[in-house]
Specification:
Shape: globular
CATH class: Mainly Alpha
Radius of gyration: 12 Å
Order of helices and strands: HHHHHH
Number of helices: 6
Largest sheet: none
Structural class: mainly alpha
Distance between the termini: 20 Å
Number of strands: 0
Oligomer: single chain
Strand content: under 5%
Number of domains: 1
Length: 81
């Protein structure tokens, strides 16, 4: 299904989070802020790196910071619900 438009806009407001980051989250089965809020940075970056057969996601400070910000925003959004 994918993130709702409202969730996408909230995530895109995070530094480092662009359409590709959101697509990667959806590709690994995370398609809502509710789901995203239950993951750790390392779980997500490792899973995406494994899916892409590359280490860049799990070694990149930029990727980790983007995912960290996305998780924090997801937790904020789900706390309001």
């Amino acid at each position: 299904m994918g993130f709702s438009e409202q969730e996408k806009q909230a995530l895109l407001a995070i530094k480092g989070v662009g359409p590709t980051v959101i697509s990667r989250l959806e590709e690994i089965g995370i398609d809502s802020c509710e789901q995203l809020s239950h993951f750790t940075v390392d779980e997500i970056t490792r899973t995406v790196a494994d899916m892409l057969h590359t280490s860049c996601w799990k070694n990149s400070p930029q990727a980790k910071n983007a995912i960290r910000g996305a998780i924090e925003r997801a937790k904020e959004l789900t706390a309001k619900s």
